[in-house]
Amino acid sequence: MATIITDECINCGACEPECPNTAIYQGGVEFDALDGSKLAALSDDFFYIVPEKCTECVGFYDAEACAAVCPVDCCVPDPNLPETEEALLARAQQIHPDKAFGDDFPSRFRAGAGEGDAGSDGAAAGAPTPAAAAPVAAAGAATVVAMNPEDALLASIPVLDDWEVPLTCFRCRGQFEVPFQFVKPGTVLHCPHCGGSFVPNTTLYQSIARRVTRFYDSWASELAKIRKRREAEMDRFEGQLRAGLDDLKEDVRGLGGDDELAGAPQRDRGFFG
Ligand code: SF4
Ligand code: SF4
Fold first, then answer.
1. Is residue 11 within 6 Å of ligand 2 at its C-beta?
2. What confidence tens digit (pLDDT) does each residue in 204-248 have?
3. Would you say the CB of residue 12 lies under 6 angstroms from ligand 2?
4. Which among 11, 148, 184, 239 is most buried, taking Cβ atoms within 10 Å?
5. CB 10 within 8 A of CB 71
């Protein structure tokens, strides 16, 4: 099915330059038909997609590029126009007669192997234009060996906003990391490998936030358990120590009355003893 733009479009224009088929046009602007003619805009109010030119990015990307950059998730499949991968590739070939697509052409129909990989699930990735914040220790990978295990645990959990989110560029498949604070809807990011731009959409953000929050919650809960265990151990230790000290005192007090103990006052037994 071709991709369509719904009336939730905020006319930000982020999608238009991303389309490999120049299938996206601004509302009210005539579009170039495949036969070279100019035709009337399909929408006067919002950006629109020309169905005859949309290949759902088959032949170019593993996911729909417009959907990947749309900050409000309004580039969606048209349920009334289902199309096969074969038909979409044929269209791509028609639009780009000089391009050889080969057997391993990118296609959303073949994507999905990276399920669970937030950066490659079609809501693609990028790095912020400014240099990324200094990397922090990746949670879960820190060495938990220190004088104070509790402090070491705390140090191994980076501040949530600083946590480096691993992302995969949907264009070049390049991998990189971006602090969580930048992976928010509306932030314009750039892939450091191919320079392509994208704006994290709500789906990508929520998907990452869900996973990261779950991870943090589980670590916080583990840490709380460890603290509780340590407190119980310390209480037990303190009780045993106090009891031991009391026993020690009793023991030592008993020694004070022992005549045989070296240093105990001796009775004077006279010159001949
Ligand atoms: S799905 Fe791909 S080909 Fe279709 S309009 Fe969006 S960017 Fe263009
Ligand atoms: S990226 Fe989304 S909101 Fe922006 S113009 Fe395209 S369809 Fe509209």
1. yes
2. 778 888 887 787 778 778 778 888 888 899 999 999 999 999 989
3. yes
4. 184
5. yes
Q: What is the pTM of this model?
A: 0.51
262, two tokens: 């070296």
| Residue-wise pLDDT tens digits, 104-127 | 899 988 765 333 333 444 333 333
Give the ligand at the shortest distance from the Cα of 72.
2
42 CB-contact burial (10 Å; exposed 0-12 / middle 13-18 / buried 19+): middle
Q: In the structure, what pLDDT confidence band is assigned to residue 33 with cuts at 50, 70 and 90?
A: very high
Protein residues with CB under 6 Å of any ligand 1 atom? 3, 18-19, 21, 23-24, 49, 54-57, 64-66, 75
- Domains of the chain (ranges plus CATH)? 3-95 (3.30.70.20), 118-225 (no CATH)
d(CA 66, CA 53): 13
